[in-house]
Amino acid sequence: MGSTKIKRILNQDISGTTKPKLRVCAYCRVSSKSEEQLTSYETQVAVYTEKISSEPGWEFVGIYADRGTSATMMARRKEFLRMLEDCEKGLIDCVICKSLSRFARNTLDALNCIKKLRDLGVRLILEKEGIDTDMISSEILLSVFAAFAQEESHSHSENVRWGKRKRLQNGEPLLIRCYGYRKNEANDNIEIVPGEAEAVRLIFDLYEHGTSVPEITRILYEKGYTRPDGKDKVWDDSRIHYMIANEKYVGDIIAQKYYVKDYITHRSRRNNGALPSVYIKNHHEPIISRKQFERCNVILELKKSTTPLQYPFAEFIRCPYCGHVLRHRKLLIQNCYTHFCCEGEGACREFVIQSQEVEKAILKAYETLDLEEVKRIVNSKNADRAENAELLLQVKEKYPSFSKIDYWWLDDLIERIDFGLHSHTASELKKGGIDDRTISIHWKCGSVTTLSSGVLRDSQDPRHKAELWDAYLLRYPSQFPKLVEEVRNNK
Known about the structure:
By secondary structure, the protein is an alpha+beta fold. It has helices at 3-11, 35-54, 78-88, 100-103, 107-119, 138-169, 194-208, 213-222, 237-244, 290-302, 355-367, 371-378, 383-398, 407-413, 426-430, 457-460, 462-475, 480-490, and strands at residues 22-30, 58-67, 94-97, 123-126, 131-132, 181-183, 190-192, 253-255, 258-260, 268-270, 278-280, 327-333, 335-341, 352-354, 414-419, 438-443, 448-452.
């Protein structure tokens, strides 16, 4: 049915008398933001504006137009939804659309919207198919055309998947959507966005050096970095975690890391084996170094509540009796202190030491480092040790001392940390026992710094303190309620 015939149907009733002007609008849509699609979009808008405005029997309501949206995603079609709202308000008598595929590609959505328009007394004209919803015979055709449109959308989604797989097979760069990168329209290559890359580097630098994620979000906002969604608001913690774990920032990419299971909803899912995936190294230019990326992800893993290891020590500290990795625990015995304990599967449970004593010893070892010895190692024939000694001197020059322990400098500078057995009580040491209260820091350059922890088994071993406290409570049971209250207050 041509547009001239449609106009006659709209402007005349059966008796041939002229009707009041019909309030007519047009709906236009293109599904991508490519130059070709946007040209089609502008053409649709211009044609319908001129067509409706120039018809004497029509009152031009307006053009409702969505750009860069898929017809299968109703929730994202803001202009379409606004048009339906105006229909509900009684502002529109007729909607004109180029074709059913522009109107909807989901059978259910199409029929629901058409039924809704008919219930509101609003007419729908689909020019390409020659469909007028005021004609009863059109309903059968609508179901058929909507089904075809939905299948067309399905076919398009499959073609997109096939195209990605083909690019992968041909070794062509895969297109990525990632903060810090964009596609070069001239050659289709992936290039770095300088301002966004600056924010990415800042995130990794701060996180590597021990800054918490909430603090990072505050710094980004104060420095004026816009969020990936373009909003001038405080960044989300979840976004920072996602970026730190994103392999794209080191120049790698996982082909088919996510996939769209339902072509109608377009919701993506993590690919955990449902489809083949390929990890491609050095796919594009990195924003950060591989070493920094790997270290930040170790820190990310250490800070998870489910890991048996603790930030920032990881596997640096082990039991002097069995070699098992020490774990961080808060022990509520008389007073609340955190300790490193030998526990867990395969542990001997023989060693416990206050964490503050370990931290003080490491910080003091760094502060009192024998720099002359380190300088001699720089000139040694061992290339690896000389390189590590040079790095140690550089860090020492930049940071003469540290106020807290962070994973980055432990990882850069320290090979391991050894403990003496700490097996003697104060009275045993007075009688001439060997003082084994040592903490030895083995630097990667080969130098070793050994300090006394000052920890006595009888005064600072929580197991011994527990035994003494139990004996005290047996002797003075009235003190037990007071102890319980103190423990509660320390939690």
